[in-house]
Each structure stands twice: as structure tokens, then as C-alpha cells.
Amino acid sequence: MQRRRLGRTNVEISLLGFGAGAVGGLMTKGASVDQERAVARAVELGINYIDTAPLYGDGESERKVGRVLKALKPDVVVGTKVRLKAADRSRIADAVTQSMDESLRRLGREQVDLFQLHNPLVANDADDRLAIDIALNEVVPAMRRLQEAGKTRFIGFSGVGQTPALLRAIESGAFDTMQVVYNVLNPSTGGPMPRGAPGQDYGHLLGRTHAVDMGTIVIRALAGGALAGTTERHPLAMQAVDPIGSAPSFVEDVARAKVLEPLVKQGIASSLTELALRFVIAHPAVTTVLVGYSTLDQLEQAAAAVNKGPLPEETLLRLGT
273-276 long-range CB contacts below 8 Å, 24 or more apart? Predict the structure, then answer.
């Protein structure tokens, strides 16, 4: 498994990461033996980045990740997150610290490698949608204090919310990493927004992160599973997945994904999911891509796809990138 440098952190992480979220569901609702087998197999495949969060299964993902890591003791990079509620606005520093301490207890660790702000970033504060001014002026100092205390090596944020707010977060220089929404249905994080395409224009965020040497972690590479080309969901998976930055509904995203099936029939990729993953890793500013798994077989397929390398240049041109 190829490794890429996580921006100015200088940490080398695998091009494919292990997403422990609720969309795939393995690490929130799966059997303990299957969870351990999957992480062990991921390590065998060369995957060394595991991404979790308190939000995933109301802490279950962190608990299960912690249990498996204690059993296997692999050499991996671990990232978790903090998501502030509206009630936390009057106590942001305490809320950030409390979230970190609770995450460390669930994970059974004294330190994580990466601590990320999980709220959508916006201009005007509302519910869990966090104003960028609050993020930069109050959350970042709290995260930095945790870094100074040795509870995290690096800090980052999830690139969801309004594009101008995301650009401000990048340009602030405050964060070491960013999670970016990037997929073949909405490639605007990596280049121009296709004419007539639905969804949010992310304004070529990857160019901005590259310019300031931030590590980039791709989320929604499979558009919440829509790029499997079917509305059917594995029993462990989240059964209703709201789109992020793409079409108004999951069903519409699936329909748009099926338009790409002729490329599979032509032998360019063995499946839509392979096509989607190889599209994402073709961008040189991408450090790693997260996939959420329901089964060990899905892990094997994702690793095989990434190991095939980027899509050919002529295919990328056909896709409008």
C-alpha cells in the first residue's frame, strides 16, 4: 500500500484509510470478532490510518477501536474528533477538553495523533453549524492547549459547511489537516465544477490545502455509498444517508452514479466503487481516502482498487477533470 506525506506533519500514512464510522457500520454495530479481523487485515494490507469520532455510534466506534487496538497493538495513526453542540457555546474550551478526555478514555489511550473539529463551518452560528470566527478564535486555542498538553500530536477539521468558511479555515494556517469532500459526482474540490452538476462548489480546495502544505483526508469518496450504483444497503450500514455536497437525495446520487457504468463495461475498472476510488487518488494533493466498511470483503475490494493506482489520464479527461 502506497503511503503519502500528511502535509507539514511529515507523518506518512496509507493512501487508503480505515473509516470506523456509522455509514459502513462495522465498527459501530459489527461482531467483535469481525471488527478485530478487519483491523488486523487492514494492517496486513498496509493500512495505517484509522479514523473515528464520538459521534459514530454514540461513542461505540471509539470503544471498539480502542478494544481492537489494545488486543492487536498495531503501529497505526489514530484520528478522532470533537463536535460541539449549541449548548457548548458558553463553555467552548471546557467542552473541547471534555470531549478529548472522554475520547481518550474510550480509546484507552493517553494521546491521539490527530484531533479534528467535526462541526460544519459557516458564517453565522446556528445549532451544530459553527461560525468560522468562533472556530478560529475559541476552538483552535483550546485544541492547541490539548496539543501542548500532549493529548494530540496534530489538529485538523472536517471540510463540511460553507465554502467561504472552509477557505478561511485553510488560509488561517491554524490547522495541520483537513477532511475534504471529494468524489466523481462532485469533483469541485479538485478542479472546476462540471457545468450543470448539482451540489456545492468547493472552489478547488485541494489547490488551497496544497499551497499551505496541509494534509488532506478525503471523505465521501463513494458519496455515502451511492457510487456502488445501488440503493440497497448492508444490514450493518446506515440505512438512510444524507448527501453531502452532491445531489439533493441519495437516490439521485445513485442515478448519477449509474451513468458511469459504461466505463466499467469498457473494462476501465471492475466496478463503480473501483472507478470512484481510483478517481480520487489520481489527485496529487490527496493524502489518504477514507472508506467506511460493513464487511471484510469491502475492505479487500477497496484495497485492491487503490493498489491498482490512479485512473488513466484519458479516463480522467473523459470525466471532465
Answer: 273/222, 273/227, 273/228, 273/301, 273/302, 273/305, 274/301, 274/304, 274/305, 274/308, 275/184, 275/227, 275/311, 276/183, 276/184, 276/221, 276/222, 276/223, 276/227
